[in-house]
Amino acid sequence: MDPRFDVELVSVTKRFGDTVAVDGISLRIPRASYCCLLGPSGCGKTTTLRMIAGHEAVSDGDILIGGQNVSNLPPVLRGTAMMFQSYALFPHLNCLDNVAFSLKMRGVKKMERHERAREFLKLVHMSDYSMRLPAQLSGGQQQRVALARALITHPKVLLLDEPLSALDPFLRIKVREELKRLQRELEITFIHVTHSQDEAMAMADVMVVMEDGLIRQAGAPREVFERPVNPFIARFIGGHNVLPGPGGPIAIRADRCRLGIAGNGPHISGRVTVVEYQGTMVRVAVTTDPGDEVSALVPDELFHRQPVEPGDAATLVWSEQDVHHMAQA
Amino acid sequence: MMIGGQSFRPISDRRPWTFYALGGLFAAYMLFLYGPMFVIYLLSFQGENGGVTFPMVGTSTVWFQDILKRGQMANIPISFGRSISLAALVSCITVVFAVAAGLGFRRKFPGSGFVFYIAVASLVMPGLLIGFGIGLGFQFLGLNTSLFTSALGAQLTWTLPFGLFAMFAVINRFNRAWEEAAADLGASAWQRLRHVTLPILLPGILGVAMGALTLSYDEYARTTLTIGPLNTLPLELYALISSATSPTLFAIGTLTTTASFLIITTTLILVFRMQRRRSLANMKVG
How confident is the model at residue B3 (pLDDT cuts 50, 70, 90)? Predict the structure, then answer.
C-alpha cells in the first residue's frame, strides 16, 4: 500500500476540561511536503502538533500517519520525531550522546551508536562540537544538534515547534533555507509550527492558517495570499487592505494600491497617518473618512516623485481586477 | 539639595552612612554566629593542666586522645557511629520519598493541596511533642523504643517535609520537554527516569540528601524521647555536659564539626561542578 498522504487528520478535537483547544479539524498533508501550521498564539497550532507527535491524546477523531491510524500509539511507534521549541537537549549529555540517545534506548552498542551519531552530526555540520555540552553551544548550534537527534530515528514525519523563534533574524533566514534543503533531500514531511507568516510563506508547500481551534484556510502560500477566504486571513497574512464591499468584505493587496486622484475607478480617501520607509518600498498608512485603516505599498521611486507626509489628505486608488471578494468572517 | 520640598543626595562615589551602620550590624551578627564556635575550637587544644575557660595553659592534643580512651568517654565513638548510621538511613529514605513525591506533585490531583499541607504540617509542630507522642504510642502498643524504629520515625517527621520543600524548588526548574523528548526518542518510563530525570535532578537530590543528613545528625528534640536506651551523639553529649565538664567536650565539638564540614564541602564541590558543566543556559522554557 502506498498512501498518498503522509499525515491525515480526521475531525481531530482536543478538549482541556471545558475549553476546546482544537475543534474537529481535518487536514491531509501530501507525501514529502513542507507544511506550516500558522496562526496567532492560542489558535491550537501547537496542540495540533503535539497530538500528531503523541504528546497529547486526541479527545475525538483520528490521526493517520502513512495511512496507519496512530491515534492511540505512543510517540515512538508513530514514525514521527519532534524538535522542541527550546530544543530540550539533555543538559547532562554531550552532543554525541544527545544524538545517540535514541539508539542507546534501543540497546545499540556504544561503538555503533557513536558512529551513527557522528554521521548525523556531520549532516548538520556539527562534527567539531561532538564533545561539547549543550550549555556550551549557541542557540543555532543547539538547534542543529536537536535536528540531528530527531533525524537519527529516521522519522517519516519531522515535527518542528517554532524552530526559529529563538534565533536572531539573520540566522533565522539562513536556518530556514537549510531546513527546506534538508526536507527536500530527505524526502520526508516536515510540519512546522510558526506564528510568522513570512516564515510560512517562504517555506511551506502547504500553509495551514488556524484560528480559535479551527483551520480557516489551507493551501499553497500563493493561493492563500492571493485568495484569502475571509478578513481574518487577509489581515493575518498581512499586505492586504480589508474594506467593506457591496456583497461582503473585499481585500485589495497594499502593493496594488497607489496614491492618486479619485477618478472613475475604485478609490478611497482619507488622511495619511504614517509614512514608513522600507527600502525598496514606502508604506503609507491612511485612515479613511469612515475610519478604516488602510495602507499602500508604493515603490520608493514612485513615492519620492510625489512624497506625502502624515496629516496630508490622500486618496488610495486601485483597479477593479485587483479586488478580491471574501466570505463574511 | 532641596527640590520641591524633597531632599536629594548629590551623586557621589561615597557610600551613605547607612552602609556602614548596616555593615557594622552584619559584622556583629557574624561575630555572634561564629565567635563561640571559634572559642570552642581554640579551647579544645587547651594544655594538659588547663580548664574549660581561658586562659590557655599551653597547648596539647591530650583532650582529643581522651575521647578514644576507656572510661567516661567510651560511649562517644559508639554513639557517633549510631548517629551517622541513623543519619545515613534517614537521608536515603528522605531522598527516595521526597523525589517520588516531588515528581508526583508536578501534576495536580484531587486533594493534592490537602495532602501537601498535612505532609508539611509537622514542620511547625514542636519536635519535643512529636517525640513524646511517638514514645507514648510505642509504650501503648507494648513496643520498645529504639534507634531504627521509633527514633528513625521521629526524625523522618522532620526531614521528610523539609526534603519535600527542597525538592519542589529543585523540580520547579525542571523542563518537562526533557521527558517528552526522551519519550519521543523511544525511552520507556523507567529509562526516562534513569537516563534523563534523575541525572538532571542529581545536584538538587544531593542537596536534599545532605540537608536530611545534617538535620538528622544533630537532631535532639524528637530523638530524646524515642531513642530507647542507646544514645545518639547529641544525646550523649548533652548527658556529658550536665555531668562532667572538661575540654574533651570541646575536642568532640571540633572533631564533629570538621566531619560535617568535610561532608558538606565535598557535596557542594560536586554539585557546583555538575552545575557549572551544565549551567542554566538550557533551563529556559519556551
Answer: confident
Quick check: helix, strand or coil at residue A169? helix
Interchain pair A104, B195: CB under 8 A: yes
Domain count, chain B: 1
Residues of A in contact with B182 (CB under 8 A): 90, 101, 105
- Does B113 fall in a domain? yes
* B110-140 pLDDT tens trace: 888 898 888 878 788 888 898 999 999 998 9
The CB-side HSE value for A56 (13 A sphere, CA atoms) comes to: 21
Q: Cβ separation of A91 and B283 shorter than 8 Å?
A: yes
Q: Which of B181, B200, B274 faces A84 most closely, judged by CB atoms?
A: B181
Whether residue B191 lies inside any domain: the answer is yes
pLDDT in tens, A177-223: 999 999 999 999 999 999 999 999 999 999 999 999 999 999 999 99
Q: In this structure, what CATH number is given to the domain that contains residue B127? A: 1.10.3720.10
Domain range enclosing B276: 77-285
What ipTM score was computed for the predicted complex, to two decimals? 0.85
* Residues of A whose CB is below 8 A from B173: none
Is residue B43 assigned to a domain? no
DSSP labels for A223-287?
HHHHS-SSHHHHHHH-SEEEEEETTEEEEEEGGG-EE----SS-EEEEEEEEEEE-SSEEEEEEE
pTM, full prediction: 0.81
CA closest to B280 among chain A residues: A135
Q: Are A146 and A112 in contact (CB under 8 A)?
A: no
| Cβ pair B187:A105 closer than 8 A | yes
Q: Which residues of B touch A134 (CB under 8 A)?
A: 278, 281-282
Of B185, B188, B277, nearest to A101 by CB-CB distance is B185
Task: Answer yes or no: is B38 within a domain.
Answer: no
